Recover the amino acids of this structure.
């Protein structure tokens, strides 16, 4: 039997173009097949060779990341990376964006983003234990941005809460650059025993391929190619049908059923159906094992009538998994599916041909080498050109700016910064998320990083170890200096984790950029990768998973280059954890690190002068590493009672956040010789504010001196006022009020 | 022959499709030294168990209405018999919603007044005792809430009964224990966070005591809810 030709040769190029393939790519497909492709084949190639699935514009430079290390059990290439976290435990994690769907339909876009990343985790055999969100929107002054923000947060909560996975950390920025193209990044973390990693492979000739979960419909057809691999224009609303709808209840059942299948050792391989649906899941599983597959689409349970074979093969209907098992285990597999009320259907089997065969009953609709779909997508090396804006912005003269002077004016600005949407409390967001389910959240959202206890409480297996998680990226810094800005994203994530007492182990990255076909955009992408890679080497944190999202543009305007970093670190003893809150009145406050005249890219500059200009703050990776090691050491010795990194809003905001969290004021002096506003609000890197008992002050200073790290004793905790001598005088109550309510006030305006 | 000590009764933790706090409840019980076992919603019997907990989560995805489908699960007949026999039944969050749908507790839980899911620690004033909570009346507990539908309502006759019989067990309050002029985070009628049935053996509450048993993760006030169960069982055994 041979494949049924259903695409006239003269119509091939037109359909290929409509599906987003280039003519060169179409010709390449003809060479692989030695004939005109069928409609089904062309659809399958168009999805698998889309930017979203094939990384054809990014592969070359992604190879520059360090991806291995002593703790890495699984690097990039699987559904998620896995690290060893000690005592036989391993942690799987990955971050992905769902930007384009969310910009059209925020609730479902964000919800299905969570669903997809969660499936990537339990596919590896890990029980999902934490979610993290990384969000970017335009200004909340605009009603549509409020709609997107509220919808996305509700969607993340609606999905994550239902499946019983706590959302424990996150980050959000509001910048005009994201107005037409929001970023909805979701990171998921899972826990498993180190010896039980499952891989998405379809090995074993004659083994059965079982589709588990939801029925297949026409939703999300072409999601990867139509939505994720093109930029937005006036037609965006018409793309709404390409957004999938989430069903978290089915996802919860899938988690339990799949983990039960893996626990019982009934599966040979397990893969999830994400972008490009059955096509990508099946072809990747086959290509990893070097086998062929024979799938009958008429066996696939369908929720709509008269679906064409190509529709079934590329549908992105959510909450579906593909399992491979031996014929002997098939009955047991189907029984577990039935127990959880899930459809489980044999749709094909593993063959020794190396070909991916799609049949509809007896009729063969597609037949191509499985490898060619997954691994033979073209690879591009686009043109690079430094954007013209860079030098101009970096060279902006900030020395002539007129800064506020005197206690009252500075206090007013300080208060405004506390209420800035990029700085204020994120409570309005995280209170919509279940942060605690699983009884392992040791440090809740609101600090520098979340801390999760390692253990399976439901099985009584609890340890004294923990992991710390942080997601970071200041897109403004990356816009002003792509290489350094990306390195700062990694440095800040590592610093946040260090402030809990944990040591960074590995990262996942989520690289959101404009169109790679624009040399200026592509240049920022390559620079960002190099900066990130450099920082990863400095902190010895390999990249174990990630995702690239291009074409984040609207009406020709790209977003800020946004290489978001999700970092996981380990804590050997939960007793040695630290939080940002001031603990006891009369403690000494020490600034570890040094404030420089660096207002470039700062929130202060944006808020007071409406400026996004200057260069990103300097980053000395050696100093950064030393600062983190000093603080981690102080926490482990029990000397540092609180630790908080200085980021947006500078040391002034960092001090305020420690005070608000600890419900305790402070009185400090900043004697750094800088202009008052610079001293307060400069966003110099590699700075951490710690507090300690007065008797321990010398130990803090000794630790700094031993590593050659600059420091300054600032003052003491206590009282009900935030006092920075000659610069700021604000009651704790007022600061708390402004900082806490700002986001909610903005949404409700 | 001396009487052999009876094994300590086990606590059944019912698992519905979509439950997601069953492991947390089992962990909390275990932490306090109480044996527990999961009971699948499709089972029909609670024989051998000394108490039953319906845990939180999203049974059947909370589709249709919270608890509306779960109340028809096969195990609910056994739970009803268990409750009518005067044995201890606890419903936490979604479990409370299921007990209300099953008419083992009065009233209903509507969508939060602010139309948002809320996860945060709240202060609760102990108003009365029941088989599950044995804390001094007027004391203030801190427990996390975590729900989208915790807005308790009932008709005025039911409210009168609840008040007259001291069946409101916990109310949302401020840090000083005041409820006057303090609105419930979810808009609940009369600040009601937890109630008991007339026989005081069935207790439903929206806050999550199981999240506040192990101090490493969330305080210890939740211990009180399970501690009284431990005492009862201990009395039964010895």
């Amino acid at each position: 039997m041979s494949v049924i030709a259903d695409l006239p040769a003269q119509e091939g190029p037109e359909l290929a173009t409509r599906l987003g393939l280039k003519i060169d790519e179409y010709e390449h497909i003809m060479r692989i097949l030695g004939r005109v492709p069928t409609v089904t084949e062309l659809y399958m190639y168009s999805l698998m060779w889309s930017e979203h699935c094939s990384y054809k514009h990014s592969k070359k430079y992604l190879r520059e990341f360090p991806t291995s290390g002593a703790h890495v059990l699984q690097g990039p290439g699987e559904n998620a990376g896995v690290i060893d976290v000690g005592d036989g435990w391993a942690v799987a994690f990955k971050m992905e964006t769902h930007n384009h769907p969310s910009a059209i339909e925020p609730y479902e876009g964000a919800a299905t983003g969570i669903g997809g990343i969660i499936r990537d985790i339990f596919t590896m055999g890990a029980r999902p234990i934490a979610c993290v969100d990384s969000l970017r929107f335009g200004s909340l002054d605009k009603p549509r941005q409020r709609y997107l923000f509220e919808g996305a947060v509700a969607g993340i909560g609606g999905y994550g809460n239902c499946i019983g996975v706590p959302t424990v950390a996150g980050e959000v920025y509001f910048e005009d650059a994201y107005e037409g193209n929001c970023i909805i990044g979701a990171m998921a973390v899972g826990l498993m025993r180190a010896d039980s990693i499952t891989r998405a492979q379809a090995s074993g000739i004659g083994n059965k391929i079982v589709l588990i979960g939801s029925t297949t419909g026409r939703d999300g057809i072409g999601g990867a190619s139509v939505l994720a691999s093109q930029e937005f224009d006036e037609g965006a609303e018409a793309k709404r049908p390409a957004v999938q709808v989430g069903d978290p209840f089915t996802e919860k059942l899938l988690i339990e059923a799949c983990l039960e299948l893996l626990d019982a050792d009934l599966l040979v391989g397990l893969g999830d159906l994400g972008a490009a649906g059955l096509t990508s899941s099946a072809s990747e599983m086959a290509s990893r094992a070097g086998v062929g597959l024979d799938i009958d689409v008429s066996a696939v349970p369908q929720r709509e009538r008269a679906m064409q074979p190509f529709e079934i093969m590329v549908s992105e209907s959510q909450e579906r998994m593909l399992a491979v098992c031996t014929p002997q285990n098939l009955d047991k597999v189907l029984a577990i599916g039935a127990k959880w009320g899930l459809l489980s259907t044999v749709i094909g089997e593993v063959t020794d041909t190396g070909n991916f065969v799609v049949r509809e009953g007896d009729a063969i609709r597609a037949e191509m080498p499985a490898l060619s779909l997954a691994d033979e997508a073209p690879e591009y090396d686009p043109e690079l050109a430094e954007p013209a804006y860079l030098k101009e912005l970096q060279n902006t003269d900030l020395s002539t700016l007129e800064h506020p002077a005197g206690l009252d004016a500075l206090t007013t600005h300080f208060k405004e910064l506390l209420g800035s949407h990029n700085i204020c409390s994120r409570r309005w967001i995280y209170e919509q998320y279940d942060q605690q389910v699983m009884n392992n959240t040791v440090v809740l959202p609101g600090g520098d990083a979340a801390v999760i206890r390692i253990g399976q409480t439901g099985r009584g297996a609890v340890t004294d170890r923990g992991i710390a998680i942080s997601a970071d990226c200041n897109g403004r810094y990356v816009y002003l200096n792509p290489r350094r800005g990306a390195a700062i994203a990694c440095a800040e994530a590592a610093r946040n984790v260090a402030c809990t007492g944990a040591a960074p182990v590995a990262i996942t990255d989520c690289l959101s950029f404009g169109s790679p076909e624009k040399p200026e955009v592509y240049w920022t992408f390559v620079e960002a990768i190099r900066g990130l890679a450099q920082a990863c080497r400095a902190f010895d944190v390999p990249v174990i998973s990630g995702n690239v999202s291009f074409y984040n543009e609207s009406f020709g305007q790209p977003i800020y280059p946004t290489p978001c970093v999700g970092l996981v670190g380990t804590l050997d003893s939960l007793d040695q954890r630290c939080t940002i809150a001031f603990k006891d009145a009369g403690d000494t406050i020490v600034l570890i690190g040094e404030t420089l005249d660096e207002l470039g890219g700062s929130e202060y500059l944006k808020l007071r002068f409406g400026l996004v200009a200057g260069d990103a703050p300097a980053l000395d990776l050696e100093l950064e590493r030393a600062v983190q090691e000093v603080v981690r050491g102080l926490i482990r010795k029990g000397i540092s009672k609180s630790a908080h990194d200085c980021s947006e809003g500078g040391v002034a905001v960092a001090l305020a956040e420690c005070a608000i969290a600890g419900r305790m004021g402070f009185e400090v002096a900043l004697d750094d010789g800088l202009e008052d506003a610079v001293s307060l609000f400069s966003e110099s890197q590699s700075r951490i504010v710690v507090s300690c008992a007065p008797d321990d002050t010398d130990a803090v200073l000794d630790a700094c001196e031993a590593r050659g790290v600059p420091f300054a004793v600032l003052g003491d905790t206590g009282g009900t006022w935030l006092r920075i001598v000659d610069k700021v005088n604000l009651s704790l109550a007022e600061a708390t009020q402004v900082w806490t309510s700002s986001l909610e006030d903005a949404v409700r305006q | 022959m001396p009487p052999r000590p009876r094994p300590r009764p086990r606590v059944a933790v019912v698992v519905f499709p979509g439950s997601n706090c069953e492991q947390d409840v089992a962990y909390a019980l275990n932490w306090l030294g109480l044996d527990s076992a999961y009971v699948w919603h499709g089972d029909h019997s609670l024989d051998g168990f000394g108490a039953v907990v319906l845990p939180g989560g999203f049974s059947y995805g909370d589709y249709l209405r919270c608890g509306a489908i779960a109340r028809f699960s096969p195990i609910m007949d056994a739970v009803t018999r268990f409750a009518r026999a005067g044995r201890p039944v606890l419903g936490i969050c979604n479990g409370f919603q299921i007990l209300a749908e099953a008419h083992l507790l009065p009233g209903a839980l509507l969508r939060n007044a602010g139309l948002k899911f809320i996860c945060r620690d709240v202060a609760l004033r102990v108003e009365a005792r029941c088989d599950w909570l044995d804390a001094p009346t007027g004391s203030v507990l801190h427990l996390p809430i975590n729900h989208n539908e915790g807005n308790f309502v009932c008709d005025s006759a039911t409210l009168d009964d609840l008040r007259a019989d001291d069946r409101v067990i916990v109310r949302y309050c401020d840090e000083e224990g005041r409820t006057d002029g303090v609105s419930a985070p979810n808009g609940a009628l009369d600040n009601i966070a937890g109630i008991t049935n007339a026989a005081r053996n069935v207790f439903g509450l929206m806050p999550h005591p199981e999240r506040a048993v192990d101090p490493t993760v969330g305080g210890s006030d939740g211990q009180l809810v399970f501690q009284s169960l431990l005492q009862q069982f201990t009395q039964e055994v010895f």
